[in-house]
């Protein structure tokens, strides 16, 4: 389901105003997001026009290569996709591809990371929305964010299907497992037991439920049926409780 640096829609110290607190947003990340390292330096105010033009052209080429790679990967799969097909579709050269990316696997992983950024924003907005409306129940917050993620899989079913199809770069499965484990650990911060501990059993059940939901929704060929399935799954997930640890 995912491949990247590591999971975590957003985790860290103090939440900024309007941003979901780390423990609460973490429940939605699953194999669902990755942290992207952003440059810390600012933009030079006096950059000259030729440099800007070169940068703009490079960004346009990079974007065209990613769009072409998305189409080729979704049509042919990662293993069968050819670099020559990607550059031809992008109207670029093989040299320009290797100027911007390390190769086919780098294109795939960049597409995945960009998809996760979009999914991260969807879940953040959904959770913030219910929190702003006064919702404090962790499960309700989970349902809001998870539903937004599933809707994102439906909105971009071609790439969602690509990333969970099993047809990815070498090492994809290993990193996927690592991300799932990290997601589970971060989810633990949201679901507490009466004595202040972590409801690990509930975290495991929710992790498995969401993994299955993402797979079913993304791989289905019937969009309407997928939407009904997503709604039904969320309704069932919302009823899950651990009777041994639930606070009364």
Report on this structure:
With 248 residues, this protein is mainly alpha-helical. Helix 7 packs across helix 9 and helix 9 packs antiparallel against helix 10. It has helices at 22-26, 49-76, 83-90, 94-100, 104-132, 138-155, 157-164, 172-187, 200-219, 223-237. The chain has 2 domains: 49-101, Homeodomain-like (Arc Repressor Mutant, subunit A); 104-248, Tetracycline Repressor, domain 2, CATH 1.10.357.10. The model is unreliable at 1-47 (pLDDT under 50). The protein is built from 10 helices and no strands. The protein is 62% helix and 0% strand. The relative contact order is 0.15.
Q: What's the Cα radius of gyration?
A: 20 Å
Mean pLDDT across the residues is 76
Strand content: under 5%
Percent of residues in helical segments? 55-70%
CATH topology of the largest domain: Tetracycline Repressor, domain 2
Shape summary: elongated
CATH architecture of the largest domain: Orthogonal Bundle
In N-to-C order, the SSE pattern is: HHHHHHHHHH
The low-confidence parts are: 1-47
Q: SS-based structural class?
A: mainly alpha
Number of helices: 10
Task: State the total count of DSSP E strands.
Answer: 0
Short description:
By secondary structure, the protein is mainly alpha-helical. It contains ten helices and no strands.
Key structural traits:
single chain; 248 residues; 2 domains; elongated; Tetracycline Repressor, domain 2
